[in-house]
Amino acid sequence: MDKTLYGQVQTLYTRSGLVSYSVDITHPGLAKHRTIKAPNVPLLQQLATSEGDKWNSAWLLQQQKLSEVKAKQAGNDTASRRTQEALALMNNISTTLAQTLKRNDAINWDELKKRLQYPEPAPKIIPTPTRPVMREPQLSLMDKIIPGRKDQLLKQAYSENEFAVQAWQTSVSDIQKQNTENSDAFAKRKQQYIDEANSHNQSVDELRRQYLSCNQATIELYVDLVLTRSTYPDFMPNNWTGAYLPESRGFVLDFELPAIDRFPTLQEVKFVATRSEFTEKHITEKNAAKLYDDFIYQVALRTIHELFESDVANAIDFVVFNGIVNSINKATGQEQSACIATVQVDKPTFLAINLSAIEPKTCFKQLKGVSASTLSSLTPVAPLMRMDTSDKRFVEGKDVASNIDDSTNLAAMNWEDFEHLVRELFAKEFTSSGSEVRVTRASRDGGVDAIAFDPDPIRGGKIVIQAKRYTNLVDVSAVRDLYGTVMNEGATKGILVTTSDFGPDAYAFANGKPISLLNGANLLHLLERHGRKAYIDVKEAKILNAQQS
Length: 549
Hints:
Oligomer: single chain
CATH topology of the largest domain: Trna Endonuclease, Chain: A, domain 1
Number of strands: 17
Number of domains: 4
Largest sheet: 6 strands, mixed
């Protein structure tokens, strides 16, 4: 209790017959008790109230001090926790390279598989009730004496029992039906899970087989899996673009690094109780730059180590690491992208290094890595090698868009011209980012119609484009085929363009996958955005196509 409690006023008599009054007051919080006496009630009330108010004030002061102590303790605890977190992060940064030496970076294919044991327990069997037993009627003396009374009571008992048995049989039938339905539904879910698990596990086995056979796209996917498992603090962008070079057995990696302004510098946090605020102590700008440089060199060596150690297929003879930083130019306020560190190293040379005993920058330079003297300055250097965009399937594109006008029905175009038109549109679309769009040889086999190479280290990479000059809805099989092509090509994204539209199952399959679906309306909008107009009339196209065939 946080207030003074007042008892009942008591009347007192002295030996001489004089009258006085008393009252007991207590304060549970302060553990105080006192009996107040006075010759009359008004004075008694005044004295008791005065003493009670003193106790109440003392209680409030005590609680205020206690609250301040708790607040100070909470502030100190928070400051201590934040300091410990900052120190842990600094230690994480300084041991970036050492962390990868403690584990095997090769992919464990079995870990990618699903367990065949169905996780859901079998449904419990609903028990059936016991069959009712007829109760013999209790016959009194009169029931036995009076003719017909016994037969009537027995008939009623038989009737009640028959009704109970019928109800029991209905209940048993319903329960058996429910048990069967539960069992069948469980068996169906279990079989579906097992079928999906088997299908998934088979795809993992197939992926492993393709990887061990040094399939280009699968090696690129494998490297993605390896780098995805490599965890970094939250300030790391965790973006990269890689390309395997099968002829030279090399791997070129554009790896995004954090800008210096995203790099943590917090060293200590203190709580100032008098101002109820936290103060932060950061490492000096000079030490921050030194820590940043050391971290970047560690990341480069760590990434190369992960690629070589995980290369159980022995497919990679050398690695090119290009460290890319995206930042805001302080002079222009514009976004800029710069390669600040690049190195190429072969496997035997790198595996001969004892990474647990090296100084990162010295090792990087010993490997003839190229970087500015201070990485935090973000001074760009020329990458030793970039991703190769050559492909024997590529052919020269031709100008189709210039012959398009508002009298052109895209759905009735020559299918090969339509593919070149799509290539032209995406070439215009990607021009601003410095991308290259190439058209492949005409095969009419539903394969790759065009490929875009976006050099942007974050959103870029290889983009597969397919063009479908259709007059019917594009079903889900075409989208599945595109997704498989994206995987086989080691692409980062797939785009499917059609003159018609996509069915709901096609949109559902594409949801959550690196696939964009552009229907006829989207195509016309894209065409108009780049200064051309046309129209799509599916019915007219069907008639024209029928006449031509």
